[in-house]
Design goal:
TIM Barrel, eight-stranded parallel beta sheet
């Protein structure tokens, strides 16, 4: 009889490697990827004392090793799946799910309590940002609450505890070039603190992602290899409406980032577009901008409710839903681009 931490394994089953490699540090949950990619049932599982190997983590891993994805929302998740043999042949084939030999051996044995810690940690504990985008928040967040301060302390402790295993750090949620805490965390990165750290991935709105800030935050900023910029618009009027930011400043910074990508300073540059009624007509201009910059990928995601508007206002914006009266227009706009391998649409068309 197998122990609670082991499960039978079918070699033909397709596996999502994220729960075996990644962890997001926000709250006391085990979240290997975006919380929106899980069903409501997932959030009712117990966490346990150690989120990385707690009951929630082990239950999710056990289900995935059995090919059971009922806790996942595969309609919004785009992570490719692979058999264990495929993962063993290319353990880092998904950059954000680096699997060690020890973890692969545990997976082969059906073990869901893993040795060591996560190889990828996504830091999303600080919400402070210079913008107030409806896809993220209802108002500006320039300060943190006492509870959030405690969360930041807990995040730092978690990072210290797993500094030997981490190979990729991700900074998102708040603006990495705006939040004092995130700036300090980035600037303080070194091989002495994280001996196996290979790269940093950032998700930024781009308005502060310039040469000055990169130099100011050295030596840690030298680890930045993957740059993801959330834009949500294809022209200045749409950008003012959806983000209230300086379009010309953004274009200047994007130009510098693209030049650095061509020079080999970065290994990845991508643009993000949260699709909603207020901005979807500018999708062709956004795509053209990405092509001019030579980005590696442009992502189009659904607009999720973050509490920034009423239910009625939110429903009006959800053009990604097939029943929305403007969904046909969205499909018409996106249709000519669906075969472009550098464009990823994370909603049905």
């Amino acid at each position: 009889m197998k122990s609670r931490s082991e499960t039978a394994r079918d070699p033909a089953i397709k596996i999502c490697p994220y729960p075996f490699a990644r962890m997001t540090t926000k709250f006391d949950l085990f979240t290997p990827c975006c919380a929106d990619w899980f069903s409501e049932a997932y959030h009712f599982l117990e966490v346990g004392d150690d989120p990385w190997n707690g009951t929630q983590a082990q239950e999710l891993r056990r289900r995935i090793l059995q090919g059971d994805y009922r806790l996942c929302n595969r309609q919004t998740c785009n992570v490719p799946l692979a058999t264990l043999e495929e993962l063993k042949a290319s353990p880092a084939y998904i950059a954000e799910a680096v699997l060690s030999r020890e973890v692969l051996a545990a997976m082969e044995a059906g073990q869901v309590e893993l040795p060591g810690g996560p190889s990828v940690i996504s830091v999303t504990a600080d919400p402070r940002c210079n913008l107030k985008c409806p896809s993220c928040r209802a108002d500006h967040i320039h300060t943190v609450t006492p509870d959030e301060e405690k969360g930041l302390e807990k995040t730092e402790a978690f990072l210290r505890n797993h500094r030997e295993s981490v190979r990729l750090l991700k900074f998102g949620n708040g603006e990495v070039f705006f939040s004092p805490w995130l700036r300090r965390m980035l600037k303080g990165l070194s091989s002495e603190v994280y001996p196996h750290l290979e790269a940093v991935s950032i998700l930024s709105n781009g308005l502060l992602a310039d040469e000055h800030n990169f130099k100011l935050l050295e030596p840690g900023s030298k680890y930045i290899k993957r740059v993801n910029i959330s834009v949500d618009a294809g022209n200045a009027p749409t950008y003012r409406k959806t983000r209230g930011g300086d379009w010309e400043r953004l274009l200047k910074n994007l130009g510098w980032l693209a030049q650095q990508r061509r020079a080999g300073r970065f290994e990845w540059l991508a643009l993000y577009f949260v699709t909603r009624k207020d901005n979807f007509e500018s999708i062709p201009e956004f795509i053209e901008l990405g092509r001019e910059l030579g980005v590696d990928m442009a992502y189009f995601s659904a607009f999720f409710d973050r509490g920034s508007m009423s239910d009625g206002e939110y429903r009006e914006q959800t053009v990604h839903l097939p029943l929305h009266p403007l969904h046909g227009r969205l499909a018409e706009i996106c249709g000519p681009y669906r075969t472009d391998q550098k464009l990823l649409f994370r909603f049905p068309l």
